[in-house]
What we know:
Elements: H1 5-10, E1 21-23, E2 28-31, E3 36-41, E4 44-45, E5 53-54
Antiparallel strand pairs: 1-2, 2-3, 3-4, 3-5
Amino acid sequence: MPLDSNLLEIVACPICKGKLVYDKEHDELICKADRLAYPIDQGIPVLLEDKARDLTSEELPK
């Protein structure tokens, strides 16, 4: 299920409060600053630190 573009404009990383980038391929929201990927479950972002996964430098969007 695609993420609502209006939601993407207002959602922020719960840790650093920075902007999140939508990774359509993996259906995740990416925080470049914290190098975390937050899952999206049925169109709803799961913005919990313990549910996020760490990203490698190769996975970070440019």
